[in-house]
Amino acid sequence: MMNAASTRTLAAAALAAALAAPAPAELVFTTEYGIEFSTIGDIGNPVVPQSVGPGFYFNGQLLWQSGAVNYEYRMARTEVTVEQWAEFITAYRPHYTGGNPTFAPFTSFWISWSPSQQEYVYNPENAGMAVDPSWRNAAAFCNWMHNGKVNEAWAFQSGAYDIATFGQTPTGEITDQREHSPGARFWIPTHDEWIKAMHWDPDRYAPGEGGYWAYPTSSDDPPVPGVPGVGQTSGGIQTNPRFFPVGSYPDVQSPWGLLDGSGSEQEWTETWFLNGERLYKGSQPGFGPQIWDRIDKINSGQSFSGGIGFRLAASIPSAGTLSVLAIVLPGSMFRRRTR
Questions:
Q1: Mean pLDDT of 151-167
Q2: What does residue 174 show for φ and ψ, rounded to 5 degrees?
Q3: Are 337 and 28 in contact (CB under 8 A)?
Q4: Residue 127: left (phi > 0), alpha (psi -120 to 50), or beta?
Q5: Crossing angle for the helix pair 135-146 and 82-92, nearest 10 degrees?
Q6: Is 323's pLDDT higher than 90?
Q7: 3-state secondary structure of 326
Q8: Across the strands, what pairs with 119?
Q9: What is the pTM for the complete model shown?
Q10: Can you identify the CATH homologous superfamily of domain 4-338?
Q11: Three-class SS string for 187-244?
Q12: Does an H or E element contain 86, and which?
């Protein structure tokens, strides 16, 4: 049985290795507000073929086949963490008018309000764990990021999403803004964006011959549940310890260098489903990767309910806003850029 100190040390070393070690060829990374992003290119990739994922049906009708994205964007390499969320909700609390002061029913196990310090606090051992807020509060986080993390009421209200739209009619119809606003700098990724970043490999079969992997781990085989250093994912772990900091499985990545596509927490997407529910993807402890991580598996949840994690999608910064360092390793096509 691992004690808390050994788990924390192992997870910190794993994350450091994941973010510092050479990544697959031609991956481009940028960092904003301490969050590392991977640039998702290969514009115009096709939808998931029937041979990999049969598509998504409701009452026998094909709703869509996903994964095709015809623009460049960025995806955070890991999910939003307890440390990042505590900073956000401390800033948001004076302006928040909702009914749940913890901002997420399950995150409250890890984060609590300190009246003496007038901020949200957490056990440092949990700082790197993924949070699991409601979709609506995750949207407010995106607004805050879009507005430069300004601690004023307006910074939480709009930018990526207009939270004034968040509500419900007397007949039960959800009125939330469906898609992020044009010009948003950060947002909750769409289902297509998530699928592409986790499953599409531009060199799946050979250089320049792209294809989809069935799992978000650059594999057609499900990852093996187990603690870091033993398994490949925390998805499906039934016994404690089963929650670990993000990046605890550094050798298990998507083709774009993303971590924790399997395990950690399931993840919200922006994509609207029946009666205002939002789709989410992935596995978590207690939910095995064999089914939950497959490319053609979808789930949905109410936007005002917690229990699901999220990672950020982001726009491509203009050239004038980036300080770029290009490193070309000898004998390799790998090029890494950092801000």
A1: 97
A2: -75, 130
A3: yes
A4: alpha
A5: 80
A6: no
A7: strand
A8: 114
A9: 0.87
A10: paralog of FGE (formylglycine-generating enzyme) (3.90.1580.10)
A11: ECCCHHHHHHHHHEEEEEEECCEEEECCECCCECCCCCECCCCCCCECCCCCCCCCCC
A12: helix 82-92
